[in-house]
Amino acid sequence: MNAPVQNALPVYRTAIRPEWIDYNGHLRDAYYGVIVSYAIDGFMDQVGLDAAYRERTHCTLYTLELHMHYQHEVKSTDQLAVASSVLDADRKRIHLGCRFSCPRLSEPVATCDVMLLHVHQGDTPASAAFPPDIEQRLQSLKLSADASAAWRPASRKIEIKRR
Known about the structure:
Elements: E1 12-15, H1 29-47, H2 51-57, E2 59-70, E3 79-89, E4 93-101, E5 110-120, E6 126-127, H3 132-141, H4 145-151
Antiparallel strand pairs: 1-3, 2-5, 3-4, 4-5, 5-6
């Protein structure tokens, strides 16, 4: 699980807010989702799926599936960094991996496996292929098969199944 993150995009960073802490003094489960959502926003900006793209094309990403793996407690004094990696991608989907880290620990405090779908938002939202430049960018960011396999947590995985 400590394999190096190759092709990692810029890291999303956040301080832990007091209202995110539960009665045990730890980050509430739900806020991992909030944090990863902001990290995905940053990922979208970096690969060209930013606000201007969404306005111009009426396309965006929808989350199809998300697996959060909690590995260490996050405390109120922690700072979190979330590094995102493209584990796989096809013409409409992105399998994104996100690792949560904090300076207090040498290994990830959590990982998140996310399947994202490119959707055209119209009267009836429908999946849509990425434009060629975005698809090429995603393919260039994809981890190697070995690095992607090493990234995955030991429990159930999500993946793009090809027909």
